[in-house]
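Troubleshooting: if your tokenizer reports a length mismatch, compare against these two reference records.
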Amino acid sequence: MLHILRFLLIAATSVVGYFFAPFISKAESAPFWGVVFGFAVGCLIVLVEILLERYSVQTLVAATLGLIAGLIGGNLLAYALSQTVEAPEYLYVLIVLVCGYTGTMLGAAKLRDLPLLASLGTRQGGGTILNVLDTSVIIDGRIADVIEAGFLPGTVVIPRFVLKEIQLIADSSNPLKRNRGRRGLEILNKIQKSALARVEILDKEYADVPTVDEKLLRLSEDLDASLVTNDYNLNQVAELQGVKILNLNNLANALKAVVLPGEMLAVQVVKEGKEAGQGVGYLDDGTMVVVENGRPRIGEGLDVLVTSVLQTAAGRMIFGKIPGSEDYVSSGPS
């Protein structure tokens, strides 16, 4: 659809050029050159629209400054050469074009980091904090509660390509994927209805970027936004590229209650442990509690005395015993 609209725009500017040209020039070739000029204007508008979609404002401004500097330098160099040596005119034109191209590339790569330009186009909405949601954090669902609690200030940005990915998952023939996709759509609906959420569905697309993760990284860089995710690999790549990350798993771990040896916990033993006699229960935040001699008490709610706490790559584990058990032997870390 977008390509059709662009084609119609170019056609319209060409037609306008055809009918408008005779008012400027009475020459017989005026309509032809009017069409050419209108076609060029339409193509220029489409080109600017594509560039604005793919590149940030500061990059485009820096590239323009580099182009101007390159053209000025190229003209000066061509003029200096014309005063010293005789050469075909096309050589001078070529020098100007090469200098203009070089200036554009150097400007886009270097000048955009200048403090004056770095502040352009990095925040939308007059300095509003932007938070881009990825697919994993939407399907996870906890983000809706975080927003409802008021712990995610600013504007929630949901890219159109993320919404499309969730819709594809919801239409999957795999029941598990289909349920996850539908849950994601329900969470989006909940976020949009929240009085504390300012939600923006962003239509920005990156046709030259193949994967959703890469699009999310590019979008977050262009908007100078925080990327909200639960995806470990995306988290690692984003940190390498300097993209700001809000990881809900890290937030959940940081909010878990601190438990010290010697404290008492109320735990319901729900299953057997790996070692003989052990039972396993869970706290409300999902932390595993290994209870010595708890196997015979599966299904019961117990008061457990904490003996040690172990932090692993998978999370935190708490080891405890039932007070008064006579044959207790700690299997936790000493």
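Reference record two:
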Amino acid sequence: MPSSIRMLAAGAAMASLALSAQAQELSKELNETVVMIPKPGFLFTAQLETTIFKPDGDGPFPIAVINHGKALGDPRFQERSRPLRGVRFFMQRGYVVVVPMRQGFSNSTGTYMGVGCNIESNGIAQAEDVRAVLDYMASQPYADRNNALVVGQSHGGWTTLAFGALNYPGVKGLVNFAGGLRQHGCAGWEGTLARVAGGYAKGTILPSLWFYGDNDSYFSPYLFRSMHEAYTANGGKATLIAFGKFGKDAHSLFASQAGERIWHPQMSKFLEAVGLPNEIVQPQYAGPPTMATPPPTDFAPVDKLEALPHVRDTGRKGYATFLTRDPPRAFAIAPSGSWGWASGGDDPLKRALDSCNKHGKGTCRLYAVDDAVVWKD
């Protein structure tokens, strides 16, 4: 991300830190709750901010853990993860879904264990947080501790591969969406990533499903294929779904509405293969219809702040903040200079337009969705 965008977004990030992630609106429909789960350590006990989405009823429900990625900048500025598209997929199939924020992220206490260029230790440290969350879930009467799945996207995907080496009892499979950690400041980081993936495989008996695309902005086809080759060469059971190009950035597949046609059928087959529920039993969690995403245009690159028409400096600062958020996301503008944006949750396109139209009085149009400009002048 260009440094100008980072600087403009910094003020908004500082302000958002003061807002508790627990104060985010909770979905009554999805029985969303936030709990602080203790993770004992050598010197102190960390508290992991964890979101739980529980189906109606007493259970016990199979468990799906979804591990978040790492946004640019200070992890403490990162919002509480709410991957609602994935949440709805699993809840329709009768799962209780658990989304932990690891140490140092959002409102979780402790410190993010970056450990410099030691990517192996980084993954293990993250995996230990996931272990603590599953220990907690195993004690809940509504959770089926003997039927669990661990899923992760980006840095969360890397966390998931590292967690696999723990061979946690009751976990039946691992799902990795574009997993890894890009470390441009570390010499030979790509080769190290592949080598360590192979190292994790040596201690893993669980089957895994991997999703990577050719136009991933973080991991090239050569890199993810090298990781998969090293993983399987060391005994890891990994099915690679190399789905080619996807949108402007394949890294956003898991969060994208359009990505569901790729990963939904593959996920269902994987669940069936590992003996976990894969049929829809609670269709009410499918969620409301969402707006269709307009096709990308050639109006401007998505990160070109000066290309935004109509808006003033405050709108450009808002757009800079928008660009720091993970997809799904949308930004809307009006000829009057009104603007608004939304990320995550259900239908961010409609929410962005609604936010903009509070002052735009119905004249707002979408400027950008996810990683593409959709504006027509």
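Descriptive notes for reference record two:
- The chain has two domains: 1-17+290-377, 31-286.
- The radius of gyration is 20 Å.
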